[in-house]
């Protein structure tokens, strides 16, 4: 047993060395569910710290935390997000982790988002970026109106994980229409593998080859996601695959630095 334990232990250590710092070129993970006990992501501070450590090992030093705001399911507000953010911020400080975090949100396109837009009460990323998402079951008929309304307010909408909306896989031109409307697109890193299925992978690789993505996020919710990310980073030449797109993660990282907002609650 000792012999085999040594072999498997060495393999795990070798795999960790393979992925160590490989995603540092992205600088910031701008889509994740690391804030504790606030949505379907991390359920405790301990879990959040474990995920932060794992993502930091992959190379991330900055995180924009984006819990769901979804009417009737995850009815978060600036206040609830700020409270959970404070718990994680203090936990990171006490654990002496050398990372910067900032709160924002992933806004579901629903009636609740319409109300937030009307009140100009959104959870923004630095630089005026707003992360939005749709249901996986059906296209939101309000998508283009939301894009327009956000732009009227002076904000820059980012559509989360477009490759995961299966109803677009056979109407690929819709992605171009969304881009032409001025909406930026964010890739889930796990989508370049078969983690979400072959069709999602094909859509992601097609958009990569077409240079359509603007941002990359992990969308990490839990340990299973972290383990899958480690496998993806070990297996795929991520940096080379993203080279076809004008990835702007570094712009967000610089916005965090310039704004001086890192580790501070929502205003």
From TrEMBL:
Coiled coil: none annotated. Its EC number is 3.1.3.48. It holds the Pfam family CpsB_CapC. InterPro entries: Caps_polysacc_synth_CpsB/CapC, Pol/histidinol_Pase-like. It catalyses: O-phospho-L-tyrosyl-[protein] + H2O = L-tyrosyl-[protein] + phosphate. It comes from the Bacteria. Gene3D superfamilies: Metal-dependent hydrolases (3.20.20.140). The keyword NADP does not apply. Keywords: Hydrolase. Belongs to the metallo-dependent hydrolases superfamily. CpsB/CapC family. This is protein-tyrosine-phosphatase.
């Amino acid at each position: 047993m000792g012999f085999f334990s040594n072999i498997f232990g060495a393999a795990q250590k070798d795999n960790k060395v393979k992925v160590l710092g490989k995603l540092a070129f992205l600088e910031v993970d701008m889509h994740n569910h690391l804030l504790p006990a606030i949505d379907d992501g991390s359920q405790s501070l301990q879990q959040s710290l474990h995920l932060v450590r794992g993502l930091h090992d992959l190379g991330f030093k900055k995180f924009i935390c984006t819990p769901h705001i979804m009417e009737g399911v995850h009815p978060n507000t600036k206040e609830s997000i700020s409270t959970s953010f404070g718990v994680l911020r203090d936990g990171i400080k006490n654990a002496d982790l050398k990372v910067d975090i900032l709160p924002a949100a992933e806004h579901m396109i629903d009636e609740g988002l319409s109300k937030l837009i009307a009140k100009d009460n959104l959870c923004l990323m630095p630089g005026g970026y707003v992360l939005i998402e749709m249901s996986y079951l059906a296209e939101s008929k309000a998508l283009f109106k939301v894009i327009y309304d956000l732009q009227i307010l002076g904000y820059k909408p980012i559509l989360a994980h477009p490759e995961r909306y299966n109803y677009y896989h056979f109407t690929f031109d819709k992605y171009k229409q969304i881009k032409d409307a001025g909406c930026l697109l964010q890739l889930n890193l796990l989508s370049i593998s078969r983690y979400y299925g072959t069709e999602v992978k094909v859509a992601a690789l097609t958009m990569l080859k077409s240079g359509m993505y603007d941002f990359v996020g992990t969308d990490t919710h839990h340990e299973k996601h972290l383990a899958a990310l480690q496998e993806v980073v070990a297996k795929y030449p991520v940096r080379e695959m993203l080279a076809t797109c004008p990835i702007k993660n570094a712009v967000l990282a610089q916005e965090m630095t310039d704004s001086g907002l890192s580790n501070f609650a929502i205003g």
